[in-house]
Write a structure and sequence with these properties.
Shape: globular
Order of helices and strands: HHEHEHEHEHEEEHEEH
Radius of gyration: 17 Å
Largest sheet: 7 strands, mixed
Strand order of the largest sheet: 1-9-8-2-5-3-4
Helix content: 25-40%
Structural class: alpha/beta
Amino acid sequence: MHKLPLKLWPAVRASGMLFSDSLWIWRNPQKALTSVEVQNWDVVETAIKEGHGLVMLTPHLGGFEIIPRVLAQHFPATILYRPSRQEWLNEVVEQGRAYPNMHFVPTNLNGVRQMTRALTRGEAIGILPDQVPSGGEGVWVPFFGKPAYTTPLPARLANRNNTPVVMFTAKRKALGKGWLMQATRLNRLPEDPALAAAELNIAIENAVLVAPEQFIWSYNRYKHPAGAELPPNRK
């Protein structure tokens, strides 16, 4: 298990850069695609050719918004997202993310059903694995040495039909030089939710360590969602 010291101002800077990356990608979609260098694409091709779809995991790091757009050049992608409570921000995000071959579904039962159907069709689905789930939908497992409420949903969806799970990162290069997108296929996640979430967090840690200064540390990964019983070591 990794441990990483956090500092306030680098975390604030990372949040600002991540948001500016996202805005630029939304407003310049075609130019953004020409600014991304893709490595390990054979990992993606091999996974999708197996015919069971693809579970795409993209932590909030660097230019993560470019990742589904790259995939959408090759096959449809259904992406799970949590609508903002602020209506104006929701409109900005939804308009910015609109793109051919990308279909966004909300984090509810209907959204999960649509993702299941997409996998059945052999398509890709996208999940932000570092997003804190609602109470009752996650488990407490370590993330950089501290208990974090974590979703076991990627494992649950992948294990229905032996679907490959791939972790993606889009590390920001020098200012104005675009991003380096990399793909890493994960081992099959356990059926047990706690074990699956623990392995998922290790994979997220490895992804974050690609460029820890580009991760959105200001997002409260360790918050306590309403309805989620605290683990013994946090009570």
